[in-house]
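Encode chain A's predicted structure.
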Amino acid sequence: MSSTQSATASRETILDYEAEVRDLKATIGALRDALEQEQSVSARRVSQALLATDSEIAQLKHTAIALRETLEQTGRQREQAVQAAVLAASQEITSLKAAVVELRDQMELMRQDKEVAVQAVVLRTHNEIVQLKEIAAALRSRLDDRRAGATEKT
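Encoded structure for chain A:
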């Protein structure tokens, strides 16, 4: 091998290396672009995922607030219903107590009226008995007088 051949071989080797270096640089550039694009796509996906997550979190918070308000409102309504039931029961108890007092008073008046009526009947019966005894005594007396007068006539 001569020095020209050796130089030509070296030159071809250098050209091959330079071509390989260019190809490698082009590959590196293409890979860098692909990596940057993938990072950009990945960053967009992460951003979209974060946005979706934030939206879902906000929606869940709104749902939790709405459920809490509904629960509190239900509790207030239940409390109002209980208070209304207690008030109605209290009013009914008061009404029933008043009815009991009224019936007791009516019974007392009826008892008093009955007692007065019984006493009137007892008094009338007593008076009749006294009157009948007086009549019986008067009739006996007359009968005795007649008997005595009849015995004297005989």
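The chain has a mean pLDDT of 92.
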